[in-house]
Task: structure prediction
Amino acid sequence: MNLSKSIDFLLENAGAVIQYRLRKEILRDITPTEEENLLEQIYQTPNFKLVQSYVKPDGYIGSGAHSWGNWRGVNYQPTMLVDGEASARLLSNYAVPKTHPIIANFVNTMRDEETLRQEFSYIPPEVVRFNTRYVGLKSGGSLMVLIYAVQALLGYGDDDYVKPFREISLDAFYSFLALNSLDDITKQQHIKAKYNL
Result:
């Protein structure tokens, strides 16, 4: 396979997101002017515009995070991107710089307790989820895991605010070093099924 041929094809035919990430992160040959032009093209894409339309005055994007699409017959999400986590994933995938006002304001909102409380009060289950957001943090099953992960996705993973999540994550990775194989954490089932683990 001719890698340079594939790269040339992408540089000529791919959309702005792929061209930007290829030039900035892989080839590392992007000029400031080219970066500015490609980012401006990214900011004009329909999905970026949609995320932009979901930014609230307080800076939070959409409603909740990894939230309910439908609760008691009421649809709270007209599109997936109205969800804070989904929007963060898109912004991360598009490699939008962490200094962009949408990202900086979103992260600031996630770090403000009162604003975050308001954002997670749109339906009763989310109020409970917010009030218990630290329960299960060390086992990876809490709202704060998601809040920390979203901030890391958006480029703020090295900040002191995210330190508890970073330390828990590193401890989790460290615990896997003692494993020699998947057999150490799986159990063979003696049933006739496609997957027996």
The mean pLDDT is 88. The CA atoms of residues 20 and 38 lie 6 Å apart. The chain has ten helices and two strands. The chain has two domains: 1-44, 55-180.
